[in-house]
Design brief:
The chain is α+β, with helices and mostly antiparallel strands. The chain is built from 5 helices and 18 strands. Helix 2 packs across helix 3.
Length: 361
């Protein structure tokens, strides 16, 4: 009996040692942490504060998607690129902006969406800055800076390696407080002793005639009206029918599918539903790949002819089969899905269809 009991204790002890060793290794390795830096800041109305979105302890990072929320009554995002439509934030530099899928801030609803992927570059490990946001204080009050969950990114953050595999991560929110302006009371003037006696105030009498300038007659001036920016405006609206996709609709009007998604605030996974009314912007789409084309519902740019045969830079042509994804195809050819997407003008890596011809660079 004693020998059996001793044997069992030896086995249990050995199991505990192995379990603790594995747990210690996992704990030492840790998860990547995406955080708001600084975690807390206080500014005055009108003052500007720079907030960074940083990542710590990450391995083999090639792509990042971030969704944030803030209080638009307290803060507003300062546009980082006046040359682009809308309000943008600044890439932090940890990842090269080879492909920017999203970069927009909405100062009305208080949201920020940012997604960047680097292509044909070594993956990044360690810690660094993913994005930088400049906020201006609008009114006194608190504004939590929180990671906002979306259908595609429930935690508000997606980190991925070069193969598209998601990297586990946790998040840490922040807080910016706009303090009420402090009114400093003005000093009370000290009365002075005026000497008793008559006071003589010298007057300056102008010498010579006084000339009064003749006012220049005013009248209506012809101020030139600025002309519309080429490519701006809205051609019309499209009611989604069953089976239609952003690419199908984009081909119908010759409009960039991502521009349609951005105009109508449609984010990953870019799902449409019958009866949805889409505003179609005037953003021309060049080098449109062949594929299904929806029926136009208003006069617009006619779909272009099918593209010419792929250039010699394609090392292979892949015909998409039912059930295939860009992730699976990229592994077949030893590349990554973003490289294939860029070579074929595919802006939504989840939207490919059977029979589609893909250039494999």
């Amino acid at each position: 009996m004693r020998s059996n009991r001793g044997w069992k204790l030896t086995v249990i002890t050995a199991g505990l040692v192995v379990t603790l060793a594995l747990f210690g290794a996992a704990f030492a390795q840790g998860e990547a942490v995406v955080r708001v830096d600084p975690a807390a800041a206080t500014i005055a109305p009108g003052q500007i504060v720079s907030i960074s979105i940083k990542v710590d302890n990450v391995s083999n990072l090639a792509g990042a998607e971030i969704h944030l929320a803030f209080n638009p009554n307290v803060l507003e995002v300062i546009d980082a690129d006046a040359g682009q439509a809308g309000v943008q934030i600044t890439n932090g530099g940890m990842l090269a902006a080879d492909f920017v899928a999203q970069n927009q801030a909405d100062n009305v609803v208080g949201t920020i969406d940012f997604a960047v992927v680097q292509i044909n570059r070594p993956a990044v490990s360690g810690s660094g800055t993913l994005a930088i946001i400049s906020f201006r204080g609008k009114a006194a009050g608190p504004s939590p800076i929180t990671f906002r969950g979306t259908p595609a990114a429930p935690a508000g953050v997606i980190l991925s390696d070069a193969s598209g595999t998601q990297i586990p991560s946790t998040t840490q929110n922040g807080l910016v407080t706009v303090a009420a302006a402090v009114v400093t009371p003005s000093s009370t003037p000290t009365p002075t002793n005026t000497p008793v006696g008559p006071t003589f105030t010298p007057t300056n009498t102008p010498i010579g005639p006084t000339f009064t300038p003749t006012p220049t007659p005013t009248g209506p001036t012809n101020t030139p009206t600025p002309s519309a920016t080429p490519g701006s405006g809205t051609p019309g609206r499209h009611v989604v029918r069953a089976g239609e996709t952003l690419f199908c609709i984009g081909r119908a009007y010759g409009v960039l599918p991502w521009a349609i998604a951005a105009t109508n605030r449609i984010f990953a996974p870019y799902r449409l539903f019958p009866g949805q009314v889409l505003t179609i912007p005037n953003v021309p789409w060049s080098n449109i790949p062949a594929g299904p084309t929806c029926a136009r519902q208003f006069p617009g740019t006619p779909p272009p002819p099918p593209p010419p045969p792929p250039p010699p830079t394609c090392r292979a042509i892949h015909i998409v089969r039912p059930g295939e994804t860009l992730w699976r195809i990229s592994r077949i050819y030893g590349t990554n899905p973003w490289v294939i997407g860029a070579a074929n003008n595919i802006y939504n890596l989840n939207l490919i269809y059977p029979g589609q011809r893909l250039c494999i660079p």
